[in-house]
Amino acid sequence: QVQLVESGGGLVQPGGSLRLSCAATGSFFSIDTMGWYHQAPGKQRELVAVVTSDGSSYYADSVKGRFTISRDNAKNMVYLQMNSLESEDTAVYYCNAHILTATGPYAYWGQGTQVTVSS
Asked: For residues 28 and 31, what is the distance between their CA atoms, to the nearest angstrom?
């Protein structure tokens, strides 16, 4: 069974940094796009950043220049380095991955990790 396991959330002051990690575990053939989404209270889940299997990345305008997405294909992991955090970044952050399994390609989600930016 494929799972995405996230870690690295927490409480940080404005201007601070956090690094989120997400590991894909279980049995599968390959991972295509990996990414991070966030969902603030009362709002819809939104794309933060994605990275393709060949390393191309895309960022939401609100995080460009502050966040960096990266992946380690050998470890089946994706990371989100978040710098210059703002109160508006407070949300639950979810890892997402498109994974090819023996029964076909599926989109998987992590359980979510809380990021709170507050003084």
From this structure: 8
